[in-house]
Amino acid sequence: NPVRSTSHHPLFQVATVLQNNARPEMALDGVSVEQLAVFTRTAKFDLDIELSEVPGEDPGAPMAAGLVMYATDLYDRSTVERLTGWFGRVIEAVVADASVAVGEVSLLDRG
């Protein structure tokens, strides 16, 4: 039996989400409606990585926007920045060559 803690989600600690569905337009007669992002400044999980498709300059090639939320009692900013840098390297390598295996991408500093 693993040791349980109420300070962590009971099923998993890391969530990675890709939101690639179009957001529905809301229209009400005589009312202007706009969707707003709400940031609670509280991480739901130990580490929560959220990516969303956003329109790019080329309508046929959407871009991605991302957000990382983390438990500050477990991670510090520099660790999360390093993690997102590694993730960016993997994305760049796969975009440059779709046949590359993710495990072949070097995460070590370039230079």
From TrEMBL:
> What is the scientific name of the source organism?
Mycobacterium arosiense ATCC BAA-1401 = DSM 45069
Cited Pfam families: Condensation (PF00668)
Residues in domain Condensation? 4-109
Protein name (database record): Condensation domain-containing protein
InterPro entries listed in its UniProt record = CAT-like_dom_sf (IPR023213), Condensation_dom (IPR001242)
GO biological process annotation, one example: lipid biosynthetic process
Q: Which GO terms describe its molecular function?
A: catalytic activity
